[in-house]
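WP5 quarterly update. Target: Sensor histidine kinase. Source organism: Pseudoxanthomonas gei. Length: 368 aa.
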Amino acid sequence: MREFLRNLLQPLNLAGFFTIAGVALSLRFTEREVTVPATLCLVAFAVLFTALGATADHRKRVRSALLVLMAAAALFQIKLAPELGTAQILLVIWVACAFSAWRVGIAVAAALLADAIFYLLIRDAGFRSPLTMVMINMGFQALAALCVYYAVRAESSRDQLALVNADLLATRALLADSARDAERLRMARELHDVAGHKLTAMKLNLRALAADPLLAGRSEVMIAQQLSSELLEDIRNVVQALRDARGLDMQTALRALAAPMPRPVLRLEVAEQVHVADPLIAETILRIVQEAMTNAARHADADTLSVSLRHGHGRILLDIEDDGRLRGAVREGNGLAGMRERLAAVDGSLVIGRSARGGLRLQVELPA
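Structure tokens (predicted):
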């Protein structure tokens, strides 16, 4: 409901409702026998306009059907009350909607066809200069179309920029983790090779001193020998911990990837024992989740994307599931084909299925 209201309260929609209200006020000047059908026709146009604003962008057939019905309602309104000179403003609203839903070529052709019918209607109604009226109306239509066209392009560019920025943030997080891993490995090697070597030499020297009859009874030598052994063992433990701590922070990278997308919401679960040390594997996981989020928003109209990352049977298991609705069989487009290609490059696998709630489910296995 909140999403529905947010869509209806967009500035362009508010302008459309305001214009429809203005046309409604002008109906009081029509003849009595025309007022009722003209009012019903205008109400139908308003309902169709509202339904179009509430329909998701990916439901192209539904949106196209609503646009065709809107055009019919607007033209019928013109036929009922051509003398008012206000009903044709509905065509301006309709053209703006057409340019937001259809490709430019289709929208232009549809607008020209609607204007040709508009010309015939007002010519048959007895207007002295129907072409002049049509051309003036086409000017307003062109203005509305340009405003909507550039608004849609600006919004698309903004979304693309947000996705690119999220991609850069996620990649930066992986690179930072990779750099930290490299630094931890370097420190582990330095501790093992330098400090460990010198402590071993010191321990051997203390053992030689302890074997000297003159120093064998000195407690200081025994304590120094014990401390050197303990310190050498501590350094070995630190080196082992530094090596075991290697792994990229997939949780931070995945959340950075999903941050700019208002929908779907990412529900992420990363098991504590999961450590992805290979940057290529990490990038593959990142790109698969990114493509799944794009598909869930564009094709499934999903609100939530659940992602689970865990270990199992010596492999990394990635489960992705959305709460959208699959219609018919899953058709593998470029996105899913790209996933398979990435996984094939790292000896991974992908199983595509349907979740218990009817959404898309992806089961991915990767080398650990």
